[in-house]
Amino acid sequence: MVAGKVRALLKKCPDLVVPDAVWRKPWIAHVTAWGSGEQAVLDYLARYVFRIAITNPRIVGLDDAGVSIQYRDRKTGRRRICRLSGEEFMRRFLQHVLPRGFHKVRYFGLWHPAHRNDAARVRQMLQLQAPPPIVPPQDSAAPQSEPTETAAVPPAEARMCPHCHKGRLIFIRTLERGQAMGP
Question: Measuring CA to CA, which residue among 160, 13, 21 is closest to residue 3?
Protein backbone atom coordinates (compact mmCIF):
# COMPACT_ATOMS: atom_id res chain seq x y z
CA MET A 1 0.00 0.00 0.00
CA VAL A 2 2.73 2.46 0.99
CA ALA A 3 5.02 1.37 -1.85
CA GLY A 4 2.21 1.88 -4.37
CA LYS A 5 1.55 5.44 -3.15
CA VAL A 6 5.26 6.29 -3.23
CA ARG A 7 5.59 4.77 -6.71
CA ALA A 8 2.65 6.82 -7.99
CA LEU A 9 4.19 10.02 -6.61
CA LEU A 10 7.61 9.21 -8.05
CA LYS A 11 6.16 8.63 -11.52
CA LYS A 12 5.31 12.34 -11.56
CA CYS A 13 9.06 13.10 -11.51
CA PRO A 14 10.31 12.22 -15.01
CA ASP A 15 13.96 12.94 -14.15
CA LEU A 16 14.02 10.43 -11.29
CA VAL A 17 14.79 6.81 -12.16
CA VAL A 18 14.06 4.18 -9.50
CA PRO A 19 15.35 0.62 -10.10
CA ASP A 20 12.67 -2.09 -10.48
CA ALA A 21 14.25 -4.09 -7.65
CA VAL A 22 12.93 -1.48 -5.19
CA TRP A 23 9.34 -2.39 -6.00
CA ARG A 24 9.89 -6.17 -5.77
CA LYS A 25 11.18 -6.03 -2.20
CA PRO A 26 8.50 -5.92 0.54
CA TRP A 27 8.30 -2.63 2.41
CA ILE A 28 7.88 -2.14 6.13
CA ALA A 29 6.88 1.44 6.77
CA HIS A 30 6.31 2.91 10.20
CA VAL A 31 5.94 6.65 9.95
CA THR A 32 5.15 8.82 12.94
CA ALA A 33 4.86 12.60 12.90
CA TRP A 34 7.25 14.26 15.36
CA GLY A 35 6.12 17.86 15.04
CA SER A 36 6.75 20.34 12.30
CA GLY A 37 9.53 22.76 11.53
CA GLU A 38 13.29 22.79 11.80
CA GLN A 39 13.37 22.81 15.61
CA ALA A 40 11.23 19.65 15.80
CA VAL A 41 13.65 17.86 13.46
CA LEU A 42 16.65 18.95 15.52
CA ASP A 43 14.98 17.89 18.77
CA TYR A 44 14.14 14.48 17.31
CA LEU A 45 17.65 13.84 15.98
CA ALA A 46 19.34 15.15 19.13
CA ARG A 47 17.74 12.36 21.17
CA TYR A 48 19.67 9.85 19.10
CA VAL A 49 22.95 11.70 18.68
CA PHE A 50 23.40 12.64 22.33
CA ARG A 51 22.02 9.51 23.94
CA ILE A 52 23.76 8.30 27.10
CA ALA A 53 24.67 4.76 28.14
CA ILE A 54 21.97 4.41 30.82
CA THR A 55 19.26 6.72 32.08
CA ASN A 56 18.53 7.38 35.74
CA PRO A 57 15.12 5.65 35.75
CA ARG A 58 16.79 2.38 34.72
CA ILE A 59 18.93 2.40 37.88
CA VAL A 60 16.51 0.84 40.37
CA GLY A 61 18.82 0.19 43.30
CA LEU A 62 22.13 1.37 44.67
CA ASP A 63 23.90 0.33 47.87
CA ASP A 64 27.38 -0.50 49.17
CA ALA A 65 27.30 -3.98 47.56
CA GLY A 66 26.39 -2.92 44.02
CA VAL A 67 23.97 -1.46 41.52
CA SER A 68 20.64 -2.88 40.31
CA ILE A 69 19.63 -1.91 36.79
CA GLN A 70 16.52 -2.63 34.78
CA TYR A 71 16.72 -3.91 31.20
CA ARG A 72 14.42 -5.45 28.60
CA ASP A 73 14.99 -9.08 27.63
CA ARG A 74 15.24 -9.20 23.83
CA LYS A 75 13.72 -12.67 23.48
CA THR A 76 10.69 -12.23 25.71
CA GLY A 77 10.32 -8.44 25.70
CA ARG A 78 9.85 -8.49 29.48
CA ARG A 79 11.62 -6.17 31.87
CA ARG A 80 14.28 -7.78 34.06
CA ILE A 81 16.56 -6.59 36.84
CA CYS A 82 20.30 -7.23 36.87
CA ARG A 83 22.53 -6.77 39.92
CA LEU A 84 26.13 -5.72 39.25
CA SER A 85 29.05 -4.91 41.51
CA GLY A 86 30.06 -1.25 41.54
CA GLU A 87 33.28 -2.04 39.67
CA GLU A 88 31.47 -3.99 36.92
CA PHE A 89 28.82 -1.27 36.55
CA MET A 90 31.53 1.41 36.14
CA ARG A 91 33.48 -0.78 33.68
CA ARG A 92 30.39 -1.20 31.48
CA PHE A 93 29.42 2.46 31.78
CA LEU A 94 32.89 3.74 30.89
CA GLN A 95 32.91 1.67 27.70
CA HIS A 96 30.45 4.27 26.37
CA VAL A 97 32.61 7.29 27.22
CA LEU A 98 34.56 8.52 24.21
CA PRO A 99 38.15 9.74 24.45
CA ARG A 100 38.75 13.48 24.40
CA GLY A 101 38.37 14.96 20.92
CA PHE A 102 35.99 12.27 19.64
CA HIS A 103 32.37 13.04 18.78
CA LYS A 104 29.51 10.62 19.26
CA VAL A 105 27.45 10.36 16.12
CA ARG A 106 25.49 7.33 15.05
CA TYR A 107 26.03 6.12 11.50
CA PHE A 108 22.57 5.04 10.41
CA GLY A 109 20.45 5.92 7.43
CA LEU A 110 21.64 8.84 5.37
CA TRP A 111 24.83 9.32 7.40
CA HIS A 112 26.08 5.73 6.91
CA PRO A 113 29.28 5.65 4.80
CA ALA A 114 27.51 3.52 2.18
CA HIS A 115 25.14 6.45 1.54
CA ARG A 116 27.76 9.18 1.00
CA ASN A 117 26.49 9.87 -2.52
CA ASP A 118 22.91 10.22 -1.28
CA ALA A 119 24.03 12.58 1.48
CA ALA A 120 25.93 14.69 -1.06
CA ARG A 121 22.81 14.89 -3.27
CA VAL A 122 20.70 15.97 -0.28
CA ARG A 123 23.23 18.64 0.64
CA GLN A 124 23.17 19.91 -2.94
CA MET A 125 19.36 19.93 -2.99
CA LEU A 126 19.28 21.87 0.28
CA GLN A 127 21.69 24.43 -1.13
CA LEU A 128 19.44 24.87 -4.15
CA GLN A 129 16.50 25.65 -1.88
CA ALA A 130 18.41 27.89 0.53
CA PRO A 131 17.97 31.64 0.19
CA PRO A 132 20.99 33.44 -1.29
CA PRO A 133 23.52 34.50 1.35
CA ILE A 134 23.63 38.16 2.31
CA VAL A 135 26.98 39.56 1.24
CA PRO A 136 28.09 42.71 3.08
CA PRO A 137 28.95 45.59 0.74
CA GLN A 138 32.68 45.97 0.16
CA ASP A 139 34.42 49.24 0.81
CA SER A 140 35.22 50.79 -2.55
CA ALA A 141 38.39 52.37 -1.12
CA ALA A 142 39.88 48.96 -0.30
CA PRO A 143 42.01 47.59 -3.16
CA GLN A 144 40.66 44.46 -4.84
CA SER A 145 43.16 41.62 -5.07
CA GLU A 146 43.19 39.59 -8.26
CA PRO A 147 42.81 35.82 -7.75
CA THR A 148 45.64 33.70 -9.06
CA GLU A 149 45.07 31.17 -11.83
CA THR A 150 45.48 28.19 -9.48
CA ALA A 151 43.17 29.51 -6.74
CA ALA A 152 39.55 28.40 -6.86
CA VAL A 153 37.54 31.38 -5.65
CA PRO A 154 33.78 30.96 -5.47
CA PRO A 155 31.65 33.85 -6.64
CA ALA A 156 30.48 36.20 -3.91
CA GLU A 157 26.84 35.93 -4.91
CA ALA A 158 24.70 33.15 -6.26
CA ARG A 159 24.04 33.40 -10.00
CA MET A 160 20.82 32.45 -11.74
CA CYS A 161 20.84 29.63 -14.27
CA PRO A 162 21.24 31.18 -17.75
CA HIS A 163 18.90 28.57 -19.29
CA CYS A 164 15.86 28.27 -17.01
CA HIS A 165 16.35 31.48 -14.96
CA LYS A 166 14.93 29.67 -11.93
CA GLY A 167 17.69 27.62 -10.32
CA ARG A 168 20.91 28.85 -8.79
CA LEU A 169 24.38 28.00 -10.04
CA ILE A 170 26.61 26.51 -7.36
CA PHE A 171 30.37 27.02 -7.64
CA ILE A 172 32.24 23.73 -7.52
CA ARG A 173 35.65 24.53 -8.99
CA THR A 174 37.40 26.49 -11.71
CA LEU A 175 38.68 24.50 -14.68
CA GLU A 176 42.01 25.61 -16.10
CA ARG A 177 42.61 25.80 -19.87
CA GLY A 178 43.21 22.38 -21.38
CA GLN A 179 41.99 20.60 -18.24
CA ALA A 180 39.83 17.57 -18.98
CA MET A 181 36.16 17.80 -18.14
CA GLY A 182 34.92 15.31 -15.58
CA PRO A 183 35.09 14.50 -11.88
Answer: 21
